[in-house]
Amino acid sequence: MPQYADFERCSVCKDQLHFLEYTYTIDQFGAPLCNPCAKARLKKATPYEKKLHAALRREKMNALLQYTDGHKTVDIAIKDALLYIEVDGPYHQSLEQQITDSLRDLYSRKAGFETIRIPNSRVRNSIADTVRQIKSLHDKKRSARNRNNGLQSLF
Questions:
Q1: Are 74 and 125 members of one domain?
Q2: Do residues 134 and 127 touch, judged by C-beta distance below 8 A?
Q3: Are residues 16 and 72 in the same domain?
Q4: CATH code at 96?
Q5: Dihedral-angle region of residue 82 (phi above 0 means left; psi in -120 to 50 means alpha; beta otherwise)
Q6: Which of 66, 80, 98, 155 falls between 20 and 30 A from 57, CA-CA?
Q7: pLDDT by residue (tens digit) across 13-66?
Q8: At how many degrees (to 10) do helices 47-58 and 127-154 cross?
Q9: What's the pLDDT at 153?
Q10: What angle do CA 130, 107, 94 make, to 5 degrees?
C-alpha cells in the first residue's frame, strides 16, 4: 500500500495527501482533505451536527459531515439518497434567515437533492426517533432511485 496518494491532493490547500488522510476524509467528508483542513471543517460542525452524523453512521448510512457541493456547505449529506440535512439552531427562526435557507434549499432541489431541516432541540431530545425517520426517508429515496435506474437501463 503506498504511503502517499500521488493522484490526490487536499481539495482546499492542495497539499499532497497521505493515503490514510485520503481514505478517511473521503469516507467522512466526501472530499480529499489534509489533516489541518479536516480539523478546520470539524471545528465548523456544531455538537448537534456531530451527534446526528455519528448516529446516522451507526445506522450504516453513508452520511458526510460538512459536505461541500462546490457552491455551498451543508451540515450532513447522504449522497446515495440525494439528501441534505441541515441541523438548525434558533438563528434559523428569523424571517430573513428562513428566506436565505429557502433559496439554498431551492438550489439544492434543482441539483436533485432534497433538504430536510432539523432543529437542534430535536437532535437533543429525540435523537432515536429522528434517526429512525431519516432512515425511513433514506431507504425510500434509495429504493425509488434504484427503480428509476432500472427503468433507464431498459431503454
A1: yes
A2: no
A3: no
A4: 3.40.960.10
A5: left
A6: 98
A7: 999 998 888 998 988 888 899 999 989 988 889 999 999 999 999 999 999 999
A8: 60
A9: 47
A10: 60
Residue at a domain's end among 28, 44, 60: 44
Same domain for 98 and 141: yes
141/112 Cα distance (integer angstroms): 11
Q: How many residues does the chain have?
A: 155
Total domains, the chain? 2
C-beta separation of 9 from 17 below 8 A: yes
Secondary structure of the chain in the HEC alphabet?
CCCEEEEEECCCCCCEEEHHHHHHHHHHHCCCCCHHHHHHHHHHCCHHHHHHHHHHHHCCCCCEEEEECCCCEEEEEEHHHCEEEEEECHHHHCHHHHHHHHHHHHHHHHCCCEEEEEEHHHHHHCHHHHHHHHHHHHHHHHHHHHHHHHHHHHC
What number of other Cβ atoms are within 10 A of residue 32's Cβ?
21
Query: 145 and 95: one domain?
Result: yes
Cell of 1: 500500500
Q: What is the pTM of this model?
A: 0.78
